[in-house]
Amino acid sequence: MAFVLLAAGPVSAQFEGISLANPDPAVAEAMRLFRDGQHEQGLVQLRPLAEQGDALAQLLMATILDEGKLVPQDQVQALAWYRKAAAQGVAQAQNELGRALSNGSLPRDDAQAVIWYRKAAEQGHSVAQLNLGIAYWNGTGVSRDHAEAVVWFRKAAEQGLGWGQYYLGSAYHSGLGAPKDSVLAAQWWRKAAEQGYVDAQNDLGALYVKGLGVTRDYARAASWFAQAAQSGNENAAKNLQAVLRKLPASRLRTATEIREKPDAAAAVIRTAAAREQYYELSRSGDWVEICFKPGHALGYVRAELLSNVK
């Protein structure tokens, strides 16, 4: 089982993931221009600051050119700015430089990539911690060491990084690098699943089917499979169809609105016709959570509107 390296994640016009603590006023002004849609003016303001050695300006130049949403993409220039910011100790730039050395954006050098991941990881950068763990797990740029990988997965997971939580759960599930423990696997997969990570949703559903680390519960399995299937996970869609056959089917007595939450004031997902068939997953007071087609969707209806399929 090999794991895949991650970037820092998309950097939006709000510069998500970049520390903005006490920026130079000129850098803050450049950022304001970008946020206001004045991208060219922002770049004109930012470039000389980066050339003068401002580390945050260098990182912003790199991310803006790398993403290519605010100005035309230029990965060659982006990498040059990442390298400058990384040399000044900027953790996000160090992670991105490591990724570039791993994925071929620069001449591939996995050993150097690990050096940069480690620099960022030791500063607490969660994605770098994950990527360093993956390097140890896969044995790329460093000797394979599942136990050391788990150390770094845990650091990323404890910071709330969903992929770190998923990979830590996978280590407990497989027994590689950590004692095999289905309960802990379920706990960490649940944390990732609740953040919307589809692989975690699908794998957590499988634990509910098998009763590993959790009490066997086909309805809970179906709920997690359905959430993953809605995101396009084909395995989850297949798993959902299999587990639904184990659940009671119901029909609506009358046409009704299906809600996104068990609440009459909640948003309406769709209006369903009488006699449409659904599968019951759970009950919350007078409301029933149901799974329905198309799209493997989940929703809620009042219990009195359902009747069992004979």
Helix content: 40-55%
Kindly report the average pLDDT value. 86
Broad shape:
flat
What is the CATH homologous superfamily assignment of the domain at 25-144?
Tetratricopeptide repeat domain
Protein structure class: alpha+beta
SSE sequence, one letter per element: HHHHHHHHHHHHHEEEEEEE
As a whole number of angstroms, the C-alpha radius of gyration is 24 Å
Task: Tell me what portion of residues adopts beta-strand conformation.
Answer: 5-15%
The total beta strand count reads 7
Using the coordinates above, name the CATH class of the domain at 25-144. Answer: Mainly Alpha
The number of helical elements comes to 13
What is the CATH topology descriptor of the domain at 25-144?
A: Serine Threonine Protein Phosphatase 5, Tetratricopeptide repeat
Point out poorly predicted stretches: 5-17
Summarize this, please?
The protein has 13 helices and 7 strands. The protein is α+β, with helices and mostly antiparallel strands. The longest helix has 13 residues, at 39-51.
